[in-house]
Specification:
Largest sheet: none
Protein name: ABC-2 type transport system permease protein
Organism: Paenibacillus uliginis N3/975
Number of strands: 0
Pfam family, one: ABC2_membrane_6
Helix content: over 70%
Oligomer: single chain
Strand content: under 5%
Keywords: Membrane, Transmembrane, Transmembrane helix
InterPro entries: ABC-2_transporter-like
Shape: globular
Radius of gyration: 19 Å
Length: 266
């Protein structure tokens, strides 16, 4: 199967999933509203603290808001197009993965568009927070308009990194079956941690978030240059390289892991 045919097939599967979901428009609107409310309330709690004390180790409310927004939008992009990777445990436990194995296409391609959902609430919340934080910093001269395309770039590379981490974590399920606890560490806890500057954490923890579970490359590392002029423009090359390496390793791990899969009926 060529790349062009795979992309075409993936698009067709997404359209089919969207048509199925949009049959329940009220549920879609309500879920989007609740998702945005939950996301914004989390940042508001941090904003109250920052408003009272001014900054966290020199990081202003705008800068922390930027970290929040980039992580939210990167995660939203990943979970929009590959949400079922995060839910692989369900397929392993129920045996639904067997059905995907019988399809004449790569298993990962068949898995990714299952139950495709438009995460409108997260997009609105993340987009508003990004516009507010970048607008504030541009307005006071901390950064320029070049930060906009640079930010869009790191949101895309961040989505690739988060997808790679999610895929590697899901692949462990071929041996353990249950992976929800591991996902809590590698995806949920790590993603929450880098919504704040890594300088807040002990050296060993920041090292883990940069090397072992490299979520620090999603927002913190590039933000040092975009917002503060630290490091250098080479940071974008490093971020793209980190995304490429993570993707290549996770795909290789997935191909190896799926050979170890034992059907629920075996």
């Amino acid at each position: 199967m060529t790349i062009k045919s795979m992309v075409s097939l993936y698009g067709m599967l997404i359209r089919t999933s969207i048509k199925s979901r949009m049959q329940y428009k009220f549920n879609f609107i309500l879920a989007s509203f609740l998702a945005a409310l939950i996301q914004i309330s989390e940042f508001l709690m941090v904003a109250i603290v920052l408003h009272k004390f001014g900054a966290i180790q020199g990081w202003s409310m705008y800068e922390v808001g930027y970290l929040f927004a980039v992580m939210t939008l990167s995660k939203t992009l990943y979970r929009t197009f590959a949400d079922e990777v995060h839910h692989l445990e369900k397929y392993l436990v129920t045996g639904e993965l067997d059905q995907l194995l019988t399809r004449p296409m790569p298993v990962l391609l068949a898995l990714m568009p299952q139950n495709f959902r438009i995460m409108l609430g997260e997009v609105l919340q993340g987009g508003f927070l990004l516009a507010w934080s970048l607008g504030g910093m541009i307005g006071r001269g901390q950064t320029g308009w070049t930060a906009v395309p640079q930010t869009l770039f790191i949101i895309c590379t961040g989505a690739v990194i988060l997808f790679s981490i999610g895929l590697a974590t899901a692949t462990c399920g071929f041996w353990t079956t249950r992976i929800s606890e591991l996902q809590t560490i590698t995806e949920d806890a790590a993603g929450t941690a880098v919504r704040y500057p890594l300088s807040l954490y002990p050296k060993w923890m920041s090292t883990i978030l940069l090397v072992i579970v490299p979520v620090g490359f999603v927002n913190y590392v590039p933000s040092l240059y975009i917002l503060r002029g630290e490091l250098g423009p080479w940071v974008f090359i490093a971020t793209a390289a980190a995304a490429g390496i993570c993707l290549a390793l996770s795909l290789r791990f997935w191909k190896f892991g799926i050979t170890k899969y034992q059907s629920a009926g075996s």
